[in-house]
Structures are given as structure tokens and as C-alpha cells.
Amino acid sequence: MEETGLSFETQTPHIPETRLIGEAPFTYAQRLAQEKALAIAITLDSDSTAIGCDTIVILGDDVLEKPADPADAETMLTRLSGNRHVVCSALALAEWDGWTIFGSDLTTVYFKPFTHDQIRDYIATGEPMDKAGSYGIQGMGAFLVDRIDGNLDTVVGLPRDLLNKLARQRLSGR
Fold it and tell me: For 157-161, which contacts have Cβ atoms below 8 Å and span 24 or more sequence positions?
């Protein structure tokens, strides 16, 4: 956000992040982004907009969110080793009156194979503990990645192209 040149402040809404039974992964990420944006938007002035974000990792039919503990992180990273997965980052813009617009972006990430020692050493840094799928591509977790097909911003968690598209749609709707 700092790169946009816009003034902003970060707030963390306290909403349950629980996938509904039968909810598609992309729908889940978009719902959470909307709920986060709306939870903040109702506290804002009429000239402000809240941006809600949510990022999930999809491996096969499973959604990998933030790990519950180091053992969960190890399980996730072991499953991801040598495999490809999809990262979905959803954004929602919301205003105090309940107006929202949302969307999501997808990027395919290919992981290198890595050892259990590498996984344990990475977990010991603490970086994986607050990241969907237990890794941060923009940090020390970059060593895990072979290549990506798509937008790096999506994997980092704030797809700027999508944010620009949503902002343009909002401005054209005024």
C-alpha cells in the first residue's frame, strides 16, 4: 500500500475465518475479504474506503490457510514440496453505507522439492506462522519456489492490478 502513495491505516477486524460447508475456495476468500472490509467500513467517515483482503492456498481440493501451530506448518509444507498449487487473493472495497465491490486473482505456484530439515529450519524462523500455506514468497520462503504463473502480488496478498480495477469501477460508478 505504501507504494500507491495513498494515505492509509491498517486495522485488523475480528471476524471468524471459517469456511462454510460446501463453500468453494474462491467464494470463501471473497466472502472473507468482504466481511473484513465491511467490518472496518462501518467505523469510517463517509469519505473513506476500507479494503479487505484474504489469501488462501489451494492444493487439490484442500484449502491451506494459516497454520495452527508448527506441526500444522510442517504438514502443509511437506504436502506442498515438489507440487504446484494455486494462490487466491481476494479483495473487497467497502464504504460506511454498506456499498461493496469485490474480486479475486489467481496465481499458480510451483514448489521445488525440499527436505524435512529445510522445512523445520524455515519454520524455526517463525515466518510461516501467519501465512496462508505456511510460506511467504516475499521473504525467506522464496527458496521454496521454483516458478509462478501469474502475478507475484497475488501470492504476496495484495494484487495491485485487481485493486486498481476495483477502484476504477468504483470511480466510474459515482
Answer: 157/53, 157/55, 157/89, 157/132, 158/1, 158/53, 158/89, 158/91, 159/89, 159/91, 159/105, 160/3, 160/4, 161/105
Q: Which of 45, 54, 72, 121 is catalytic?
A: 54
CATH topology (fold) of 2-173: Maf protein (3.90.950)
Closest CA relative to residue 131, chosen from 77, 61, 67, 52: 67
Q: What is the pTM of this model?
A: 0.90
Res. 2: pLDDT tops 70: no
54 is catalytic: yes
> From the centroid of its chain, how far is CA 108?
13
Q: pLDDT, tens digit, for every residue of 121-165?
A: 999 999 999 999 999 999 999 999 999 999 999 999 889 999 989
Q: State how far the Cα of 96 lies from the Cα of 8, in Å rounded to an integer.
A: 16
